[in-house]
């Protein structure tokens, strides 16, 4: 009967090993649309955690007024934000090797902004290298 506890311990170890490996996996897709969707899903679930884990030290964000923000201020600005609801549309992608440039409309709570996101694979993990948002003008204002 001593073999039963050993078998249970071994099975438990095997189960935990398999699952810990799956949590430690690198990003396994190079499809630009899927990469962006992973980013949006992670961002919506927990913006602070997303920025803290997906932006490198040399990240730069350009806001709608042309002002730059860097990693430290972006991560700090997302503190306390646990979840959000946003979606992307009107997408266009350019991919070259380990670099993806995505552009389109990112809508946050009904407020759309035009975006360009630069995503770079670093150490087998897609990282948010740079971001730029621009105000989307209403059609009537654009005709003036």
Model description:
With 144 residues, the chain is an alpha+beta fold. It is built from five helices and six strands. The chain has helices spanning 3-23, 32-45, 47-54, 71-77, 139-142, and strands spanning 60-62, 68-70, 86-96, 99-108, 111-122, 125-135. Strands 2-1-6-5-4-3 form a six-stranded mixed beta sheet. Helix 2 (32-45) crosses helix 3 (47-54) and helix 3 runs antiparallel to helix 4. The chain starts with a helix and ends with a helix. Mean pLDDT is 85; it is low at 9-25.
Give the SSE map.
Elements: H1 3-23, H2 32-45, H3 47-54, E1 60-62, E2 68-70, H4 71-77, E3 86-96, E4 99-108, E5 111-122, E6 125-135, H5 139-142
Parallel strand pairs: 1-6
Antiparallel strand pairs: 1-2, 3-4, 4-5, 5-6
Helix pairs in contact: 2-3, 3-4
Count of DSSP E strands?
A: 6
**DSSP helix count?**
5
- The CA-CA distance between the termini, in Å, is 85 Å
What structural category do the secondary elements indicate?
alpha+beta
Shape: globular
């Amino acid at each position: 009967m001593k073999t039963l506890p050993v078998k249970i311990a071994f099975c438990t170890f095997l189960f935990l090993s398999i699952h810990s490996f799956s949590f430690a996996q690198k990003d396994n897709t190079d499809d630009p649309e899927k990469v962006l969707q992973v980013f949006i899903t992670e961002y919506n679930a927990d913006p602070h955690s997303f920025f803290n884990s997906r932006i490198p030290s040399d990240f730069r964000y350009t806001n709608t007024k042309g002002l730059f923000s860097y990693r430290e201020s972006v991560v700090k600005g997302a503190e306390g934000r646990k979840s959000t609801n946003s979606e992307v549309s009107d997408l266009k992608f350019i991919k070259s090797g380990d670099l993806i440039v995505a552009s389109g409309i990112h809508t946050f709570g009904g407020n759309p902004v035009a975006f360009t996101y630069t995503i770079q694979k670093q150490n087998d993990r897609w990282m948010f290298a740079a971001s730029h948002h621009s105000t989307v003008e209403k059609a009537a204002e654009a005709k003036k």
